Predict the structure.
Amino acid sequence: MRKPTNAMHKPATTPKRARDTFTQATQTDNRVHLTVRISPELRHRLNIYAAENQRTVTDIVTQAVTDLLDS
């Protein structure tokens, strides 16, 4: 049997501290991309809330962070 190449193997992930990643948005959008790690349960709850309230996850998170920082 042939050994798989590196392209076929994904390196094992190691637990890392949560990091926020900022990248530049498109020229038409003045927002930046923010990546955060959350639990699968929180993601599920957030998706349900978004569907029930007919809002996007981005809008909900943006509003929550804004409210937190403004308080």
User: Anything to note?
Assistant: The chain has a mean pLDDT of 78. The two ends are 62 Å apart (CA to CA).
